[in-house]
Amino acid sequence: MRRQSEAATALSHAADHPRPKRCRAGLATALQNFRAPFPLLLYFIIYTLSFLPAPALAAPVLSLTLRCPNPVLKTGDEIPIEFTVTNQGPGDYQYSDRTYDRSGRIGDYQLTARTGSGAPVPDPRANDQGGIAGGVSAFALLHPGRSFTKIIPLNLWALVKEPGRYVVSGTYYGQSQSITSAPITVTVQPRTGVEMDAYIRSLTNQLATAASEDLVRQLMYTGSPKMVPALLPLIGASGNVGFWAFHALADYAPHTPEVRRTLIAATTERGLGASPSLASLLVNFGGTLDEIKPLIERSLAADHPQDWAAGAQLAQDFGDDAFTPRLIAIATTPGSDARGNAIFALAQNRTDEGVQTLKALMNDPDPKILLPLTQTVLNAGMGSGKPLRTNDFTAADVRPLIKRLLASDTQNPDKVWGGELIRRFGDAAASTNSKEK
Q1: CA distance 337 to 100
Q2: Which of 29, 112, 262, 353 has its CA 20 to 30 A from that of 144?
Q3: Could you give the number of structural domains in the chain?
Q4: pTM, entire model
Q5: What is the pLDDT of residues 335-393, one digit of tens each?
Q6: Could you give the residue ranges of the DSSP H alpha helices within 271-369?
Q7: Residue 64 forms beta bridges with which residues?
């Protein structure tokens, strides 16, 4: 009877408590017997969960529309285009809300334009794309169904200088995708010659009273050669005024012989030293050596030390043996900030006297000329015109330069350049690393 009672009790217990499957029993037993500290247990759980597949994130669904908020536009006006980006997806969209870029254009918002006949309108910065150069931005969150707007001047992306009908398209480059809008039509009405003159005169009068970025850009959008005299004195001005004055002349003023001659004459009178950007502007406009030579000679003259650096910079692009004596004098003047530019100019227009000067400078103690000398040696044989020859320097010639580059009191970048020279001149490296170190 007792055995029957025990058996009945066992059957009753089994009915009320069914036996778990082996895997569940094993896991339960393991967890019951697990006596690890809580941090270790938590790590174990997180580590295990890390192998589980992550839920797929839905790609953002964005739309882009454009509109021009100004109903009446005339030639020379700023043409504002409003971007509206809408989040049509199920989740939030995080984006970089950029309000300014030091390159002058926010690359997240790009515009193209075609004339009524379908011809593309030139990009004024086609040869100077810039790219992201830093500026003001912050991350923002766009919730589903919400939109944000940004106004971008079409003039920054298209050189609109004539009246007519323009077909405009925009592209927004977001965090993870780019979207292009449907095209819109913008109509620009004409200004007569008299009206345009009056408009430019009004802007230049205001500019003479108080220079500002907005006034410079308004003049820039006219694309008229008549803006040149007003903007040239602002080249090199502090802040964005000088930046936009340079780009107005480099990218928007017509590159005609007349404008080029105006620039050269004004720069000759003013002096290249007034702004280092003037030399770059003249290179941008091109021209002939005969046009530029008098300005370079004046800038390299002994009584114009403030113009030496810019003059030597121009001499790199407009080489002439007639500049060599003055370039040698500048390259060997202790303490002059123009020495590096003069070294580069001697390298771009090779003469025997210039090569001998560069060899002598390998022993010069001025640390500011280490990099120019190194680059002239490594770049020998490169460039247009009459560059240095690859066999102009021997290991013995560059050994003093290598020694100075590898000296213990120089910076790490100098040591890197020294290593480059050692790879080019193997026997010099052996000498420097042993007896002369």
Answers
A1: 33
A2: 112
A3: 3
A4: 0.73
A5: 999 999 999 999 999 999 999 999 999 999 999 999 999 999 999 988 888 999 999 99
A6: 277-285, 289-300, 308-317, 324-331, 339-348, 352-361
A7: 85
